[in-house]
Model the fold of this input.
Amino acid sequence: MSDPRAPGGAPPSAAGEAGPLPGAPLLEIADLRVAFASEGGVARAVDGVDLAVHGGETVGLVGESGCGKSVTALAILRLVEHPGLIAHGSRVRFEGRDLLALAERDIRAVRGNHLALIPQEPAAALNPVLTVGSQIAEVIRAHQHVTRAVAAWRAVELLTSVGIPDAEKRAGQYAHQLSGGMRQRVLIAIALACGPHLLIADEPTTALDVTIQAEILELLDGLQRRLGMAVLLITHNLALVAERTRRVYVMYAGQIVEEAPTGALFAAPAHPYTQGLMAAVPRADRPAERLAAIPGQVPPATAWPSGCRFHPRCPFAWEKCREEMPPLLPAGEGRSARCWLLAERQGPDAKTPSPQGASGGR
Ligand SMILES: Nc1ncnc2c1ncn2[C@@H]1O[C@H](COP(=O)(O)OP(=O)(O)OP(=O)(O)O)[C@@H](O)[C@H]1O
Ligand code: SF4
Ligand SMILES: [Mg+2]
Done:
């Protein structure tokens, strides 16, 4: 089995050794479905997602581009824009409330208050005609009864707390006057303005260079420890997930295909897709040319394949995979995977299908 902990193969933190947490989850999503009507047909971007985050824990959501991670995040906050629709029957419970049933006014009170999002596109998320200080102050005033002057002062404090030097001057500037790293810090400041209980961080460091990435992650770690908030970390970066999360959800083609405690997932991924993702991660002890990328691409959301959606790319696929969609099946303690191999291994006529043209390294 390959070890994706890269670079240098650092072991996952103790946070990776995760049993189930007691008590009700802070966030609980059940059968979440989001579709977009487009010229090419209906794009079922998120198609029956179940996911939970407990208070204080960091949970990873990973998968290739186009698998539905950001749409899931937006749907949790009910920020999916036209022509996207969240299907009836989808459930998003946060702190015991059904967010999909709330009036617009009530969901606005939840957003940015107890539940905050660092969106994937920092440039698009900031208003170009308002100073960054006034944007932070606006969020504070939307949720707290404070004067303009107090909100402005808190905005400067927040900019300082996210490591922006000369925060008073920066508060009076516009997004285009700041570097990418500073814009990301401003978004973190906006997300943290009201002390959220859950922060959804959608690729919080992807657009940044390595040094700034490390600084931002350190900043988030410190804030999380200080505020005790839970984090749903959405990323392509498996090394980040190995280091920082307690549990992981792997998403493919609009569905969760594997869920596991982080340590267990990295020790032995159960789903062939997760195995493929891990085999494609560079490692210090493996030459780059031996990386095994998953063949093919994520199909468009308007045309998910029949049966198991991963079957056209899966080296283990057989007839049943093309015809029947596997449910999430138990894959060990606290874990599950959407793969017929698990049923085959557990069944009376257990068989171990061999890879058809599988690449090495698995
Ligand atoms: N406004 C939209 N209209 C039509 N389809 C959309 C829209 N937004 C998202 N989609 C579709 O939903 C699917 C999932 O998109 P999403 O942005 O959630 O992917 P992602 O997993 O976050 O990818 P990335 O890793 O690149 O951020 C994609 O196939 C995309 O084409
Ligand atoms: S169900 Fe079949 S095609 Fe899908 S991941 Fe498992 S073996 Fe591969
Ligand atoms: Mg995304």
User: Anything to note?
Assistant: Residues 1-16, 349-354, 356-362 have pLDDT under 50 and may be disordered. Residues 36, 38, 43, 45, 63, 65-71, 84, 120, 236, 301 surround adenosine-5'-triphosphate (ligand 1) (CB under 6 Å). The chain has 13 helices and 13 strands. The two ends are 6 Å apart (CA to CA).
